Amino acid sequence: MNRYPITDHAVLRYLEHVAGLNMEEVRKNIHLKTKTAIESGAKSVTVDGFRYRITNGRVVTVVPTPKSGRVVAKKFETWSNKKGVKK
Hints:
This protein is an alpha+beta fold. It is 49% helix and 20% strand.
Protein backbone atom coordinates (compact mmCIF):
# COMPACT_ATOMS: atom_id res chain seq x y z
CA MET A 1 0.00 0.00 0.00
CA ASN A 2 1.18 3.50 -0.79
CA ARG A 3 2.33 5.70 2.04
CA TYR A 4 0.19 8.60 0.82
CA PRO A 5 -3.35 8.59 -0.58
CA ILE A 6 -2.14 9.70 -4.01
CA THR A 7 -2.69 7.64 -7.16
CA ASP A 8 -0.03 6.97 -9.76
CA HIS A 9 -2.21 8.88 -12.22
CA ALA A 10 -2.14 11.95 -9.97
CA VAL A 11 1.64 11.71 -9.64
CA LEU A 12 1.98 11.41 -13.40
CA ARG A 13 -0.22 14.48 -13.97
CA TYR A 14 1.72 16.39 -11.31
CA LEU A 15 4.99 15.62 -13.07
CA GLU A 16 3.49 16.67 -16.39
CA HIS A 17 1.57 19.80 -15.39
CA VAL A 18 3.25 21.13 -12.26
CA ALA A 19 6.85 19.98 -12.68
CA GLY A 20 6.81 20.55 -16.44
CA LEU A 21 7.83 17.06 -17.54
CA ASN A 22 7.27 16.71 -21.30
CA MET A 23 5.60 13.31 -21.67
CA GLU A 24 6.10 13.13 -25.44
CA GLU A 25 9.83 13.63 -24.97
CA VAL A 26 9.84 10.84 -22.38
CA ARG A 27 8.00 8.52 -24.79
CA LYS A 28 10.40 9.47 -27.60
CA ASN A 29 13.39 8.77 -25.38
CA ILE A 30 12.03 5.35 -24.35
CA HIS A 31 11.24 4.54 -27.97
CA LEU A 32 14.75 5.42 -29.13
CA LYS A 33 16.23 3.13 -26.46
CA THR A 34 13.92 0.21 -27.22
CA LYS A 35 13.03 0.44 -30.92
CA THR A 36 15.44 -2.25 -32.10
CA ALA A 37 14.38 -4.66 -29.34
CA ILE A 38 10.70 -4.09 -30.08
CA GLU A 39 11.20 -4.61 -33.81
CA SER A 40 13.12 -7.84 -33.18
CA GLY A 41 10.35 -9.22 -30.95
CA ALA A 42 12.35 -9.11 -27.71
CA LYS A 43 10.53 -9.39 -24.39
CA SER A 44 12.96 -7.04 -22.65
CA VAL A 45 16.08 -5.02 -23.17
CA THR A 46 18.58 -3.52 -20.73
CA VAL A 47 19.95 -0.08 -21.56
CA ASP A 48 22.08 2.09 -19.30
CA GLY A 49 21.27 0.06 -16.19
CA PHE A 50 17.49 -0.11 -16.76
CA ARG A 51 15.45 -3.05 -17.97
CA TYR A 52 12.59 -2.18 -20.33
CA ARG A 53 9.97 -4.94 -20.35
CA ILE A 54 8.10 -5.42 -23.59
CA THR A 55 4.71 -7.10 -24.08
CA ASN A 56 2.95 -7.36 -27.44
CA GLY A 57 5.36 -4.88 -28.98
CA ARG A 58 4.89 -2.22 -26.30
CA VAL A 59 7.09 -1.15 -23.41
CA VAL A 60 5.02 -1.90 -20.31
CA THR A 61 7.44 -1.06 -17.51
CA VAL A 62 10.95 0.13 -16.76
CA VAL A 63 12.88 -1.11 -13.74
CA PRO A 64 16.42 -0.48 -12.58
CA THR A 65 18.79 -3.38 -12.73
CA PRO A 66 19.96 -4.39 -9.24
CA LYS A 67 23.23 -2.45 -9.45
CA SER A 68 21.62 0.79 -10.68
CA GLY A 69 19.15 1.40 -7.83
CA ARG A 70 21.36 3.98 -6.14
CA VAL A 71 21.79 5.86 -9.39
CA VAL A 72 18.02 6.12 -9.79
CA ALA A 73 17.59 7.59 -6.32
CA LYS A 74 20.39 10.09 -6.92
CA LYS A 75 18.97 11.15 -10.31
CA PHE A 76 15.54 11.72 -8.77
CA GLU A 77 17.03 13.64 -5.87
CA THR A 78 18.92 15.90 -8.29
CA TRP A 79 15.80 16.39 -10.44
CA SER A 80 13.52 17.04 -7.47
CA ASN A 81 15.95 19.57 -5.99
CA LYS A 82 15.99 21.46 -9.28
CA LYS A 83 12.19 21.41 -9.44
CA GLY A 84 11.70 22.30 -5.77
CA VAL A 85 9.89 19.05 -4.93
CA LYS A 86 9.67 18.58 -1.17
CA LYS A 87 10.21 15.12 0.30
